[in-house]
């Protein structure tokens, strides 16, 4: 298991956000928990992954996520069981959408 | 309600809860944000889940208050660890105090989590005790079995304690799973890779025919909901007093005599007198239920 936290500059997500959970901790899958953080201009992501040694890939995938979505002010926690980058991107996008109540 | 069919088998625990309860009525206890994760898995450096693989809460079904637990079969095979078990036990103890219309247990579990086997075994016995205490307080408990992991090991026992057992053919119920039996007794005893055999022996249709499941439904979340709604109106009571327990024991003894040395569901269909035993696995649940009811009225 490898654990690390990454803080990224991000466009503010705006109000009307709620916590959301997406995905399941199963082989090749992960769960993404979205909660409200403190700083509206930053997105913090806490990663706990069963695949050691891929921090640079995580940083690339998460940078891509905040590029695509205004995730500022969100605190994201991840329990990963070896998901591929594509699955991680998909779950992040799903969780982000769920945190708006599906409206966005 | 959306007309789109939701496969209960394919759905996650959270999706099953959402499909079963009245829209917007669910309140989760110990939600993921509380991070009540397994200390044992963490100690073994294994991945944890924020809900430890089980969703518990309160909701209404058809306007009636229920307490509901849903195991996530994809997380460690829905296996019961210390936290997971404590959540189910706590829900059942709450039921004995609050007396909702029923407790719904959405079972999807291979049994006890081997990473924390002692704590898991204790949790199973605590769940059984709490379940019977809820029943003694007048709260019926319904098991719903239709997930990929079925209901095995300790959760198989818990399922059989329930007042109603609602199953799909895809759901399975047993004590030792097919792989365990093959490992211990050899492939000649039970070929766990023969999927058709596995389902003919452990699947919902055989369980319904033998009376272990009380209702058989198609693999459709709305069919499970409809069965739960019907059970909320009228339900069977699990045997509790000495007379009904003795009657249940006598029925089991008789069953053993009716189906001696049976090794396959096909033999049971034949003995029961179903017209085309080999066609039974492919029957829709409505047709299967109709044929079973017809046999019951013939006798």
Automatic annotation (TrEMBL), chain A:
It is found in: Cytoplasm. It holds the Pfam family ACP. The lineage of its organism: Bacteria, Pseudomonadati, Pseudomonadota, Betaproteobacteria, Rhodocyclales. The modification O-(phosphoribosyl dephospho-coenzyme A)serine is found at residue 27. Keywords: Cytoplasm, Phosphoprotein. InterPro entries: Mal_deCO2ase/Cit_lyase_ACP (IPR023439), Malonate_deCO2ase_dsu (IPR009662). It comes from Denitromonas iodatirespirans. GO terms for cellular component: cytoplasm. This is Malonate decarboxylase acyl carrier protein. Covalently binds the prosthetic group of malonate decarboxylase.
From TrEMBL, chain B:
It comes from Denitromonas iodatirespirans. Keywords: Transferase. The keyword Transferase applies. SUPFAM superfamilies: ClpP/crotonase. Residues 1-240 form the CoA carboxyltransferase N-terminal domain. This is Biotin-independent malonate decarboxylase subunit beta. Signal peptide: none annotated. PANTHER family: ACETYL-COENZYME A CARBOXYLASE CARBOXYL TRANSFERASE SUBUNIT BETA, CHLOROPLASTIC, MALONATE DECARBOXYLASE BETA SUBUNIT. GO terms for biological process: carbohydrate metabolic process; fatty acid biosynthetic process; malonyl-CoA biosynthetic process. GO terms for molecular function: acetyl-CoA carboxylase activity; carboxy-lyase activity; transferase activity. It holds the Pfam family Carboxyl_trans.
